Amino acid sequence: MLKARIIVLLSGLVLPYAARLPRGSEWLHQYTDQAPMAWLFLGACNAVAWSAILAVSFLYRRPSSLLAPSLPGFGFLAWAHYSLDLAADAQAAIALIFIPVFALAPILVGAAIGYLIDRRAGSQGVA
User: Fold this and answer.
1) End-to-end CA distance of the chain, in Å?
2) Distance between CA 65 and CA 57 in Å, rounded?
3) pLDDT digits (tens, 9 = 90+) for 43-60
4) Of 75, 100, 85, nearest in space to 24 by CA
5) 106 Cβ partners below 8 Å, 6+ apart?
């Protein structure tokens, strides 16, 4: 489970930048051509989402159950960071605060599904 948690942590840190790559280097530079404090700000805001996935992981017995909250949560984050154009509006950067908060809903739904999958797999292994 420790390896799965480390993968979640690293994925959460890299995801905002990796999601920008398909649109080209100009989109990536919107996130990377900033002061170091901006990088920390983006990492801290995004920590809301991946730390929720880490917190849920303590309810699971199997690392495979962690896919249920990770896929919808990281999927939403990837889509949101991919589609956010910081150059479009002066207030667009405010979305960086709300994106991880909005990702909590798919993470919660996935966490409940993962919990049920984890318990069902555990009860079948005992029988």
Assistant:
1) 23
2) 8
3) 888 999 999 999 999 988
4) 85
5) 69, 72, 73, 75, 76
